[in-house]
Design goal:
Elements: H1 4-7, E1 9-10, E2 14-15, H2 21-31, E3 35-40, E4 43-49, H3 50-57, H4 66-75, H5 78-81, E5 83-84, H6 95-105, E6 109-114, E7 117-123, H7 124-132
Parallel strand pairs: 2-3
Antiparallel strand pairs: 1-7, 3-4, 4-5, 6-7
Helix pairs in contact: 2-4
Length: 139
């Protein structure tokens, strides 16, 4: 049986709570990822997704012009935008359970935690890549 450990990304990109949203976006773009984990030491404290950032700077309640909205990236931190204490899985979690959680909550990824320390991340893309390896049945 496949487990999270078989498909997860080890040593994922992380930031601390005090980094600016501009640094968060830069790190996400550099690594070509859609979510970044927020840590204190090795402890997971939150997650910031590309959607979180878009909602923060493109709020209809914000009257600023688009360029002024980009300046908001300097004014706010990961802590301001993150989802604190995100749902997570362990390396031993079966892949079917990971898929169920991702689907049920419409998440793009789940942090992987062991003994209260961040050890990885598993994404929808990881599951799709695994599915792509399954050979087509012969006709």
């Amino acid at each position: 049986m496949l487990t999270t450990n078989d498909l997860m990304t080890i040593d994922p990109e992380t930031v601390t709570q005090d980094v600016s949203l501009r640094e968060v976006v830069t790190a996400m773009n550099r690594a070509n990822i859609r979510q970044i984990l927020v840590v204190e030491g090795k402890k997971l404290v939150g997650i910031v997704t590309d959607r979180d950032v878009r909602l923060a700077v493109n709020s209809p309640l914000t009257a600023e012009e688009p360029l002024e909205r980009l300046e908001l990236l300097n004014e706010f931190t990961a802590k301001d935008c993150m989802t604190p204490n995100p749902r997570s899985v362990t390396p031993e979690t079966p892949i079917h359970k990971v898929a169920e959680l991702l689907s049920m909550y419409k998440f793009g990824a789940l942090p992987v935690v062991k003994d209260d320390e961040l050890v990885g991340i598993i994404t929808v893309t990881d599951l799709l890549n695994q599915m792509a390896l399954i050979p087509e049945p012969e006709k």
